[in-house]
Design a protein that fits this description.
Number of strands: 11
Oligomer: single chain
Radius of gyration: 18 Å
Structural class: alpha+beta
CATH architecture of the largest domain: Sandwich
Order of helices and strands: EHHHHHHEEEEEEEEEE
CATH superfamily of the largest domain: Jelly Rolls
Distance between the termini: 30 Å
Number of helices: 6
Helix content: 10-25%
Strand content: 25-35%
Amino acid sequence: MGIETKERGGRGLESGAQIISGQLGKTIQRLRKAYNLSLSELAEQSGVAKSIISQIERNETNPTLATIWRLSQALDISIERVLSSDAEAPFIDKTGRADTPILVSEDGRLRLAIIGWIKTVEWLQWYDVQSEPGGELDSEGHQRGSIESLSVTAGEFEVEVGEMVQRAKAGETLRYRCDRRHIVRCVGPEPGAALMVCILKAAVME
């Protein structure tokens, strides 16, 4: 799965620098995990050394603004959102289209917009799924006990887990174990749309 990048103009570096906090490392780590990127892969995409990224994630170093900028561009998110982290204050958070990360399937026909909150990515992830007819998302297993839910809003999808295959049309939902290889396909002649929610390390499996 690849990352669909977007062109943006320069952001206000000075305004971003004013809101640096100790939560930076956790934010970078959550974003990296949301993209399923290794430290080496993020280092390659950002031009920041793997050792530096590791130190940032462990809050063992104070990175320069230039380093944070390169990481934010590689993670396809604005520098202001990377740096902002006041967890105690009331807030209403709005993410625009340009700041919504997009994952693209290997065949290029299916796109996942990461609409979940980056602070929950280690245990709860949700995505807006848009697919052309025939689009297929082939995923390796997540953590043991993880469950995925696919609620179809348009078209028809098929989910394959092991030897089991099930289909769902608009208004229907499929729930399945995703701690093993699983494949989501948009079947039929029409484009498909769905909401995908992944609960990692689910406590109960019935």
